[in-house]
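Students often ask what a holo structure prediction actually looks like on paper. The answer is less mysterious than it sounds. You provide the chain, you provide the ligand, and the output is a string of discrete structure tokens encoding the 3D arrangement of the protein together with zinc ion.
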Amino acid sequence: MTRTPRITFLGVSDATYLAGINTSVLYAGQATVLIDCGPSIPRRLLETCDNPEALDAIWITHQHADHCFGLPTLLLSLRLAGRQRPLELMGGPGSSRFLRELLELGYPGSFRPEKCFAIELVEVEPASSVERFGLKFSTARTQHRVACQSLRIDDNERSVCISGDGKVTPETLRLFRRADLVVHDCQWAARASEDHSSVTDLQPLFDEASISRLALVHCNHDERQAIAERAENLWGKRAWLPIAGEVCDV
Ligand SMILES: [Zn+2]
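The corresponding structure tokens follow.
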């Protein structure tokens, strides 16, 4: 039986707003997948779910600290809480090596097979998909300072996409096509940036990719009001700014 995907916005803040929580999403459906794990996420995740076996996979969009520097802490805490099941660490091209190095840098030797549950590194190539846990994982690269891999998760009925950081590209517009929900970086109301999206930048999600709903995250804290007003003017209830801890059934 298909379980309708439930999205929990663990955090929605940008990289340096220290009173906020790093942008991260928990997908719970056929499987439970954490997307991104900044330094403030291990504690937030524990408050949401204290079962160390709950996660099936973690997808890391890119190697900026606010998206992955919580990973060594989270995995060590899962190990010490007694996790036995394997855990898949997923990402785009090149992610395996980077994630292995990040774990070793954080806690040298602590994730060796004889000490720790199995950590399986899975890379998804942009033009292909990987089937795991009855879900289909696909990816495409955004426009961002470092390579950032957006994620699309399809079950038999519903599709959820998470951009990670950056601006839309022809590839991500194809990836997001007809998605039920896209969770997208929207740092600015209108400012032009090479690295992050503004509300205006995201119009093609509706016009070209024909998505249904849009959750705006990674918003600059001082611009949240302006972003919300602009988004409502353009898209009405099809778009919104979730707050940290908010839950959404897709
Ligand atoms: Zn980034």
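The CA atoms of residues 76 and 110 lie 7 Å apart.
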